[in-house]
Amino acid sequence: MASMICAIVRRFRPPTEGILMEYSLLYSLSVALVFGLIIGSFLNVCIHRLPIDESLMAPSSRCPSCRHPVRWRDNVPVISFLVLRGRCRDCGQPISWRYPLVELANGVGYVLLVWRFGISFPTAVYSLLYSSLLVITFIDLDHQIIPDRITLPGIVIGLASSVVLPLGFLNALIGFLLGGSLFYGVAVLSRGGMGGGDIKLIAMIGAFLGWKQVLLTIFIGALAGSVVGLFLMAFKGKSRKHAVPFGPFLSLGAVVSLFAGPAIWNWYQHLGAF
Fold it and tell me: Is residue 36 pLDDT above 90, yes or no?
């Protein structure tokens, strides 16, 4: 009788555990979004100041046009931009859409990372990689440089963190060496066609993601770069000598590899089986 009662209770008991798990996930994703937006605001500072060797801590954020310090209430990620209708409160000059775009991109990226990897040490490591790639993308678009202040520490962090990640140190080391040596070889053979910043960037990506994903990153980056280059030549009148920064395409490849790399490799292996 007792066992029968227990079975009936279990059968009709509300699925509170499932509901709690859903609320817990929703809470985690919400925190990730807010945290990502806040970090995204700091990334805008990095994008603006790193190429001109300014301190990231001082002075406080200022309007690029009138140089007036930004009030705290005007520095709330995304919301302040919408409230001010994209203009400086003091001088009325337009504020670039890049600021909320970077904040949103970082916030959404953090949400996807928590969704994919949960609240974990790998999520923290990959969040650092993701934000670094975001900064590199916009700096390379503006200045055609990839700062060593991001890639060199990134290589060290990627290799060090691999010791406690499923990736493993050997995989990270091979990824670092493979990516860096491939691009170094291209730079030598092309006599400067590949910049030193790109070499360090792909080495950093290899240190974080390993040798398989660094190969996938290169393939996706080269494919995306070729498509954009052909578009510029066909519709914008650019010549083959027109310089297109490669950092954004490598960053795109790295993000795709981070989220979908294993699935893409599995698909490719099954494709080869036929």
Answer: yes
Q: What is the pTM of this model?
A: 0.87
Angle at 239 between CA 234 and CA 241, to 5 degrees: 140
Task: Report the C-alpha gap between 132 and 187 in whole angstroms.
Answer: 23
Residues 208-225: pLDDT tens digits?
Answer: 999 999 999 999 999 998
DSSP sequence for 119-187? SSHHHHHHHHHHHHHHHHHHHHHHHS---HHHHHHHHHHHHHHGGGSTT-HHHHHHHHHHHHHHHHHHH
HSE (side-chain half, CA atoms, 13 Å) at 29:
11
Question: What is the Cα gyration radius of the chain?
Answer: 23
- 126-135: per-residue pLDDT in tens? 999 999 999 9
Cα–chain center distance at 73:
27
Nearest to 40 by CA among 113, 100, 93, 91: 100
Residue 257: enclosing H or E segment and its boundaries?
A: helix 247-273
Nearest to 225, CA basis, from 192, 247, 258: 247
- With H, G, I as helix, E, B as strand and everything else as coil, classify residue 191: coil
